[in-house]
Amino acid sequence: MSFIMDCLSVNEKGNLSMGGCDVKEVAETYGTPVYMMDEDDIRKNCRIYANAMKKYYGDRGLVLYASKAFSCKYIYKVAMEEGLGVDTVSGGEIYTALKAGFPAEKIYFHGNNKTEDEIELAIKNDIGCIVVDNCDEVDRIEEIAGRYGKTVKAMFRVSPGVDAHTHDFIKTGQIDSKFGEAIETGDAIKLIKYASIKKNINIAGLHCHIGSQIFELDPFCETAEIMIDFIDEIRKETGIVISELNLGGGFGIKYTEEDDPVDFDKFIEAVSKTVKAKTKEKGLPCPFILMEPGRSLVAPSGITVYKVGTVKRIKDIRNYVCVDGGMGDNPRFIMYGARHGALLVENPLGEKEETVTIAGKCCESGDVLVENIELPKAKKGDYLAVLTTGAYNYSMASNYNRIPRPPVVMLKNGKATVVVKRESYEDIIKNDLI
Ligand code: LLP
């Protein structure tokens, strides 16, 4: 029997095993809920992308880890060691990356409404590139960069108008979007022209991102074509030659058996063919290419382990298996109706005996982690693992209901290392002044 996640197996005790560690033992040692991540599996994913970039673009490409997926000091260290750059979207992410010792020149700063303070933080620290969203931001950057006597390397976020078939909340490539300016409406070229007369901004590249959890290659190839057409339009209208093209992230992964993702390197291969053919057709130099996966680098390497408390069987209606975490540590079901797999840690391959809904402990009916999943009979005290939680779980966690956030434990070669400690009740009140 195989698991949805490559990094899981069953050990000689019959328990779930990850990174050479007995998942039950790690849960006993660090308590529950607990996020566990397999470090070598993350590194393996980093290498798949980095090697594909090298194969298809030589030294003319860079993979950025979209750190909104999972941000803490340690993951920036891993990304750094694997030779990736990072995509950051806030002062907090930039600060964390810098504190982890991440090289500033490989940090890219995105966002549709960066504050003056965030822009200043980026400029002061010589962040590699700001991905500019709009004309207002051009003014803010020009002013702050001028004050520091610096020139900012900038990419411009544009919307290519491609419909990626994914959840509405995580779609970004269409005209009706708060991100960037659309090519189709003419706003994108206006943005470039507006920036071109600013003396502290160096127009280096274009950026786009069509959405997240996308399973098809075509939307990425279509996007690459549209972007190169736009690079051509910019050259013709302004004489500016765009030298970098960031085609975003969003590569889909397997959360359930029904998900059928494409191998990660195939995205890079397909896009590279399109970029090369299209630039040749237009007589343009092939730009330096960036891609910025988040989820696919970390989600398949993470699980969250909970302890089962109440099991409530409502005859002919639903069986609730309630665990000691919930929407505070994983809001993906309540936000997107997202689906995750789940296993009993001490009986991962056991016969499936009933259909259950795994619910959290928050005061909210929608506080569900997994709806209608078949599991062996679970009872109070069992450890239960929700799968594929390495992305957008810890990073989107909250203290709703004043529940402390779980720790993150990195597993590698049979050793467990806490990289983010569990919050305490003291942490919960530390900012309450009176
Ligand atoms: N680049 C940009 C500009 C993005 O906005 C995103 C994700 C990425 C890269 C990385 O996309 P990924 O490879 O991770 O799909 N919270 C949602 C996902 C939100 C994605 C936001 N932007 C979830 O839990 O599914």
Walkthrough of the structure:
It is a single chain. The protein has 434 residues and is α/β, with parallel strands linked by helices. It folds into two domains: 8-38 and 299-429, Lyase, Ornithine Decarboxylase, Chain A, domain 1 (Beta Barrel); 110-293, Alanine racemase (TIM Barrel, Alpha-Beta Barrel), CATH 3.20.20. It contains twelve helices and 21 strands. It has helices at residues 23-30, 39-57, 73-81, 91-99, 116-124, 135-148, 187-196, 218-238, 264-282, 295-298, 332-336, 425-429; strands spanning 8-10, 16-18, 21-22, 34-38, 61-66, 85-88, 107-109, 129-132, 152-159, 181-182, 201-207, 244-246, 288-291, 302-314, 318-323, 342-344, 354-359, 368-375, 383-386, 408-412, 415-420. Strands 4, 14, 15, 16, 17, 18, 19, 20 and 21 form a nine-stranded mixed sheet that branches. Strand 20 and strand 21 form a beta hairpin. Helix 2 (39-57) runs parallel beside helix 9 (264-282) and helix 5 (116-124) packs across helix 6. The radius of gyration is 23 Å and the shape is globular. 49% of the residues are buried. The mean pLDDT is 96. The structure holds ligand LLP.
CATH class of the largest domain: Alpha Beta
**Percent of residues in beta strands:** 15-25%
The mean pLDDT is 96
How far from one another are the termini? 56 Å
Number of spatially distinct domains: 2
CATH superfamily of the largest domain: Alanine racemase
| Largest pleated sheet | 9 strands, mixed
Low-confidence runs (pLDDT<50, min 5 residues)?
none
Ligand inventory reads: ligand LLP
If you consult CATH, what is the topology of the largest domain? Answer: TIM Barrel
